[in-house]
C-alpha cells in the first residue's frame, strides 16, 4: 500500500504522526545545548631568554620587544635613540 494512499484514507493517522513529529522536535529543541561562546583554549607561548649582565632597559629594548613583535606579527620597528 502506498504511504500517500494510507494518509489519504486515514486523516486521523496523518494528524497523529504530524503531532508526534512536532512533539519530538519540541523536546529535542528544549534539550539542545546552547552556548554563547564555543569551548576554545587560548594559545600559550612560553619563551625563556637569558642575557647575562644586562640592565632592565637593555633587556626591554634588546630582548623583550623584538620577541613580542615577532610573536604578535608586528613589523620590525626602529628604536628611537
Can you tell me about this structure?
- The chain has three helices and no strands.
- The model has no long low-confidence stretch (mean pLDDT 82).
- The chain has 81 residues and is mostly helical.
- The protein folds into two domains: 1-33; 47-81, no CATH class.
List keywords for this structure.
3 helices; single chain; 81 residues
Quick structural gist:
About 55% of the residues lie in helices and about 0% in strands. With about 80 residues, the chain is an all-alpha fold.
Write the layout of secondary structure elements.
Blueprint: H1 3-9, H2 11-30, H3 56-72
Discrete helix count: 3
Q: Kindly state the percentage of residues in helix.
A: 40-55%
Task: Tell the overall outline.
Answer: rod-shaped
Secondary structure category: mainly alpha
Q: Note poorly predicted spans.
A: none
Distance between the termini: 91 Å
Strand content: under 5%
Largest sheet: none
Mean pLDDT across all residues, rounded? 82
Total count of domains: 2
Amino acid at each position: 500500500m502506498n504511504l500517500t494512499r494510507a494518509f489519504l484514507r486515514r486523516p486521523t493517522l496523518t494528524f497523529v504522526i504530524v503531532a508526534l513529529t512536532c512533539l519530538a522536535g519540541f523536546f529535542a529543541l528544549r534539550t539542545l545545548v546552547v552556548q554563547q561562546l564555543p569551548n576554545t583554549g587560548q594559545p600559550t607561548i612560553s619563551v625563556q631568554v637569558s642575557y647575562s649582565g644586562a640592565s632592565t632597559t637593555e633587556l626591554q629594548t634588546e630582548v623583550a620587544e623584538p620577541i613580542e613583535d615577532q610573536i604578535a606579527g608586528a613589523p620590525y620597528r626602529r628604536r628611537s635613540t
